[in-house]
Protein 1
Amino acid sequence: MLFLVIGRGVQGLGGGGIQAIGEITVSDITTLRERGFFINIPIGALALLMLIPTMNLPVPKMPLKTKLAKMDIVGNLVLLGSAASILIAVTEGGVTHPWSSMQIWIPLVAGMGGFVLFLLIEFLPNPLSTQPVLPLKLFSNRTACSAFFMTFLHGIATYGAIYALPVYFQSIKDETPLRSAVSTFPSTAPTAPFAIVAGIAMAVTGKYKNLTFVGWAFTVFGFGWMTRFTTGTVEWELIVAQIVAGVGIGILFAITLPPIQASLPIEELETATATYAFCRSFGAIWGIAITTSVLTATVSDRLGGMPDVAQLGFTGPTVLGYVERIRDLPDPVKEQVRQMYADGLQKGMYAFMPVVVVGFACCFWIEDLPLPDFMREEKKNQHQQVYLEEKSPFSGDGSDGSQDTTLVGSTEHGPVVSMPFDATHDFVRYHDNHQQQHIQRTPEGYASNSFKYSPTLTPSATSYTWDEKSDAVAQPPRAYW
């Protein structure tokens, strides 16, 4: 058992890292508009062979001591311990111990308290966490907060259903594990295609808010339909309900990350994406725990009035392990056991309804921000220099009448340069809100084609600054950034 626990821990470290790194890599090499066209390669070995010759990205060189200092060791340990304590309480409650027992309350309270401590460590300045794994700036706007919470809820619903449906088909419909996998195909088959469709729709329209409404609407309707699953549910209803839920789940797989990355600075891309992956994984833990807890609690409660079933070894802790034995039970007892499992799974689906309804409600707090069109390196470069088109009269050595720019200072956005104002030219800027904007420079001033959420230029004494309030035509000063 110890070896199994250690092995699962190592597997979790690798799996969690792969999930986060995959999302970060896709975010690094594609724009947010294009990301809907890219899907994961399902064969891991092929992916590895492709990465070896192509993943030649520069690696920052720093001493091991510096690398370790950047790790939030304290925060990660507190979070890991808190999650483990909560998981123990949720999975053991009503199974090995009553919910009112100290064996459940102690780890539950300790886990909740540890999670509060983790937030304090991450959000408040302290020497224990100089590089927090969950910086407060990730939750600086309502769009990011809503999207993170939606991701958590999506994880609960998705993995809860994935865990519950095979148990339903094996225990209620007398199917083998292989056959139950085929029966759950209607819930998984639409996931990838509709994730791709949602990504394409987002890329074409540049919008994601309406897609979140559509995704959660399908999910709510599908889960609501699955609460009707009983021992007598007909096959067509089982198939259609799963398809509806699968469509919603697939759309949300593609749509929950873009609002996060569109609403946060590019510098937070890796941290935001890793937090997104954590929210989904943490939700998966709760989804599986809810299914298991409700089912085992229902079975434990019902067994008191079923002595014949209890004598066969069916107890709360064995409820999942004994699923395959149901097919071999005599008919009168089999019907009792099937009804017991059906009631437990139905209660589990009812428990997921508040989760998906709250997820739908979160859509109202999402803002439809413009999707970034820049690549990551381009964004980095714009903080180091002012980009001008090659034909600009302000670039060159002066042989064609042009004059070199002069660096006169800097701002948080980039350098401030002084340029002569004697010609008309076009140049391109990349903004904090991740939108590319073309600005026409004329002797009369600067005319911008900005729109809502897009910053515009206003003059100051020595430089231009960005103003998100309204479009404007600004009179040019002698220096600008």
Protein 2
Amino acid sequence: NDLFTAVLLRFGFGLDLRSIPVRAVGDPNGDSKSPTEQISVSQTNGSTGPCLYGEEFQLDPTKKKGICACKKGFIRYNINSRCYRPYTQGPCPTGQMILNETTCDIQPCKRGELYFPKENSCYRVGTKGPCGSGQVVTFDFETRPSLDGISFNGLCGCVRSKPCEQETEKDSCTRHDQVLFNDKCYKLYTQGPCDKGAWLTPVRHRKEDIWTEEVDRRTGACDCMPGYTKTLRTVEEKVIVECLSPSVILADYLNKNYVSFNDTEFRYRCPHL
């Protein structure tokens, strides 16, 4: 048996970790899960080994200890140091789901809907939701309901009847409050890529142009926000359009009048100039 284990070790098939205490990752004291718990047989790195569900056995070479780390797709809940899939009930009360290492929150979705963390919204299964072209809202099939519980985590999957298409920024700009600017999608009436004092507004088209394919009705342009004034300035022989606030315009006006007044007073005192 020892010879067989040595061969496995030599070729990287396993790790001989006899008499190495096991601890859970996240234990501040680094203590063993049990004072007497030790590995009695060779355990393969990445296997379950002596660990709990949702964990995998790993070797910590710096401390010469075996550790039980959460598997990919699991998070360790700090209160009980167990690993769960996020967006399942996990250790949370009924009607709630685990969000991260410290937080349980109310499960917000109705029956038939799934939760998308990035959008912080729920979408019905089989609909387009926040997904790209050729994709629909689908379940997280990595989750095993019998072990993990029901997952409310929504994913985007391809429609079987047709392959997923390569989504472009232009294709994704479909919301009524979004516009395209330099082939990128931005929300209307926000600063976006515009300079200070300006925001994105929809480009107005003539009625006869909206039926032309070349004209994209979703294009946006930078325009001055209400209360700001469009001003032309020459900087290094270049004309620059700026949106100036009332306070800046007033300061500029007073400054010019002050210079003009001083120049007039100087000429009055020195008429020979």
Protein 3
Amino acid sequence: MLTIGAVMMTRMRLNNKIGARYCFFVIIVCLLLSGCILLQKVGPEPQIIASSPREISIRSVKGVKPHIMAAEHCAKHGRQWEFLGGYPFGEPSLAVIYGYSCIEFE
């Protein structure tokens, strides 16, 4: 989006005050739009599917591993977390169920 404003600035003469203001306005709008796009959430929040003092299963989106949520759960029970792996939840879906084990501190 920033390239649109940059191209417009190079094509228009900066001596023209209206053209310069217009290009500046376009660049500001592009920056605001790209900032809003970057602030959007990637997907739904991770959810705890099943938990016990020894294990926890968390449903999340591919690429977002909820290690912090598992660490907090295991710390609540006085244990440390160990990542067991992620398993796809439906083939066309991006959802993954991540498994964690709560093990005793060594």
Protein 4
Amino acid sequence: MNGTAILNTASSMIEAYGDGAKFHIAEQMDRALEAGDGATYDHLALVAKAIALMSMTRQETAAAKPEKAAPVPVLRTFRAA
């Protein structure tokens, strides 16, 4: 199982299916489980984890608002000599 292939698969599924990527990968995992194909199921489980992490990051990024910088308090004023 190549990590790059897992990330590429997850990325392409998010691009193709959007929010439905999690549902689509779950269907594929069910089919692999019913067929008794353990290697495919393990691979799809890793892809599902990558999809969950990738989509979580996108949602947090979209919801994040830039914080306003707090004004710097002036502790002392200096006078020119």
